Every structure is written in structure tokens, then in C-alpha cells.
Amino acid sequence: MVVFHIGQKTVKKGEIQQLPEEHQTERSPDILKVQNVDNFDSFYDYESGTSCINVKNRLKNSLDFWKNINASKFILDLIENGYKIPLINEPESVLLRNNKSALEHKDFVEKAVQELIDASLIEEVSNRPHVVNPLTVSINSSGKGRLILDLRHVNKQVVYSKIKFEDWKTASQFLTSDCFGFAFDLKAGYHHINIFPNHQKYLGFSWKFGETVKYFVFTVLPFGLCSAGYVFTKVVRPLIAHWHKDGIKITVYLDDGLCLAETEKLCCEQSVRVKNDLILSGFVPNKDKCIWTPVQTLVWLGFTWNLKSSLMELPLIKIENFINLIDVILSKAFKVKIRLLAKLCGKIISFSPAIGNVTQIMTRCTFSVINLRQDWDQYVDLRQHSDSIQEIMFWKQNIHCLKPVPLLRNNSEFNVFTDASDIGAGGYLQGLYLQNLIQSANHYSVIESAFYGIKWAHNLAGVANPCDSEMVRLIVEASRRKLNRPIEKKSPVTSLI
């Protein structure tokens, strides 16, 4: 008999048990009820820190949860039957060789492929798939590798779908002074979504084990499909809407979530609710990366969020990596590849949310050098571009002391009561103002400046614009006729004067 803990209460595996009262919210007690043994397994695996949790079919096994939160028919069909890749035309059958990066990291690829097999995320097939795509390996700044299926051949035939991702700007709208927050990350986010069986043949690849070439197909959403970000975000959206409906201020960018709350107690309650909903939905949170305890300082989307001061700051590790990149450029006596220079500028621009528009101002000269390129791998001597060197030295000397941009701004509050009808008070008062201004003005530009100033101020405040009044329009036209009088020509200069 397996026994584990939910909160402070001991529960026997196999019992139908409601979560402890202190971990429930008044708005959704039905969602927090554990309905079957599979959900107990999910809670137990997560809370015990099991590292080998298999994400395959978890969403499908939790289909009732998605029905309870009123997910759309598209999402329910996707979860139940797998994602049908929207194709313009069927991709041409092709056999493509693996990329150089995969061949250079053979040991990593073999290990990654074996892990995918063990997790049932790929299947070995006896016959060559319709499309055999290349494998590639991406190494991030920390040295961690990621196996990616190079689907450029298939992506040419995938219907483009536009979607707006949530980001730091979305989260900052929920920010309040001295608030609290928690963050979560989903383990192998894309791999939660199954691929429709008839479309798996487009997601094939090959790898040579010893002297034998083996063929595989992805049975889950792989990294590399151009519509992956779109469909994954679409799947997460019903969860976000479910939380927003209950007043939970949460933002999710792909598989990274951030929730903000006014008080520590409220944040704690919402943290329990969100964690339970994620597990009940079939998603597996990454235990090592999640911060479920309410805090006022956390890292999300590569930035340190100081919720007490309402500031977004650059993490120290990011600054150190940036300085190291500059040192590499300096060590080459300013003779560097354009690619390296573009990498530097890309890092600087990525700092914009934390330090503001100085990132654009102090990269103009360097971007001018980059735009002169004929090839990304060509070398450039920056000593011939002294302005660019000055920009690089500016960043090396000042990156530590640049002031973060405040996320909360103190705006003066004011109320404007207007009415834009022909005889409304707003238009009438503005008409009186312009009439009095005409008497003292000596040129139409004075009236025009006042007119557009009033119009701009009301548009900026997001309130009704009295300039739309017919009365105001007639007064402005009258001022144009009255003040734009013909100028008398001066007498010509002659010898008789």
C-alpha cells in the first residue's frame, strides 16, 4: 500500500479524496477533487520529485478536466485524437542527411534518442518514413544541449497561423506595489501534445547505431515544427482563461508561467490552486524550476523581477556572460566576425525591458557596421569604426550601473468630463475658449496649435474628444478665414526714396 501526503493530510493511494480545506478556494472546489487513481499517481509522482515522469498521453487521460473548464471543440479533439498538422499540400517524400551539429555531438544524440524511445515519444519504424528530416543539436549559453528536428522541408507546406504570445509586458499589467508572486515551468511542454497518427510520417528522422541505420517518427509535438508554439499556446489558453475568470492574475509564455497577487496569503492560495489545476489537467510541472512559495524576488523569462521595488533587473549571470563576450571581442584586437558583432548587439537589445531605450541609442553605430556586411562570416576591423568601439566600451564600463526602468509609473490622475455632440457642454466650452483666443491671436497657427493640443490631450487620456463637435469645427473654420488675411505688399525699393 502506497501512502503519501497532500498538504498535511495522509492519504492512501486508491482512495477518492478531496484536497485539504486549507488548500481549496471557494470558487472551484469541484475542480480540486481527485476523481481517480491516475490523478493520485500524478500528485504522488510530482510531490515525491520523480524525475522520470512520462508526459505521453497525460492530457488525453485528463480529458474530463478539459471538458469541465469548457475547452473548445478544437482543443478537445486535439487532446483526444492528436494534433493534425495544417498542411497546404503534402510535403514531397525526401531523405535528408543529419546536420553537422548532430554529427559533432554523436554521444549526446544517441543518449537523447534513447531517452525519447524510453519515454514513448518516438517510435521506431521498419520502413522509411515519408519524410526523413535532419537532426540538429542546439547548445544554449549554459552548455545544455537540445535535440531539434530540422523540419524546414515540412514547414514550407504548413499553414501559417498568427498568434500573440504573452510576455513581460502582459505580466507588468498585473503588477501592484509591494506584491508577491510565484512561477512555474512545464516539463517537456511540447511533448504533452500527441501527433495525429496519420501525420507522424512527416516527422521522421534516421540515426546510425553502429553499422545499422534506424528510422523513427515523432509521436508527440517536436521542437522544430513552425506551428508548435501556436498550437501549444492554444492548448494552454483555456487554463489561463479558467484562472482569469476566478481573478488569478497569471501570465504564461509558452511553458513558463508567472502569477502575481496583492498579498502573500492570496498568493499562497492561488499557488496551490494553480499547481493542482496543472497536475489535474495532465501537465507535469518541472519541480526543479517551479517556485510555488510566494516570493518578492524571482527570475522569469531571463529577468530578475523585484516585486518589492517594482523593478525588472538583469541577473548577474547574464551580465557576466555579456562582459565575457565583450572581452572576447577585445582579445581579438577588434578584428571580429560580423556574426560575433551581431550576437553582441542581439544581447544588448534583449536587455531593453530592464534598462530601456539606451539599448537602441548605444548600438546605432555598431548596427551600421553590421549592415555593411556581405557575409555573416566576414571579418571587420572595428578600428576603422571608432564610434562602434566607443559603444562597446560604454557597455563594458556601464552595464553594472545602468538604472533599471521602473515597471510601475506614477501617473497623475485627472478626470475630464466632455460631450462631443453639437450642443454638448464640452464642445460649447471649447468653442467659447477658441472664440476668446481668436480676439487676441494674430495668426491662425495659434488657433491650430490650441485645437490639436486639446485633441491630443483627450486622445492620450482615452476620453471623448470635444473637438469632434460641429460647433468647434465651424469656429476653427471661421478663425482660418479671419486670421489668414492677405498680406499687403510692401512698396518696392527705388532710388526715389
Automatic annotation (TrEMBL):
Listed Pfam families: RVT_1
Record's keyword terms, sorted: DNA-binding
Protein name: Reverse transcriptase domain-containing protein
Claim: Heme is one of the keywords in the record: no
Stored SUPFAM superfamilies: DNA/RNA polymerases (SSF56672)
Domain Reverse transcriptase stretches: 150-304
The organism's place on the tree of life at top rank: Eukaryota
GO molecular function, one term: DNA binding
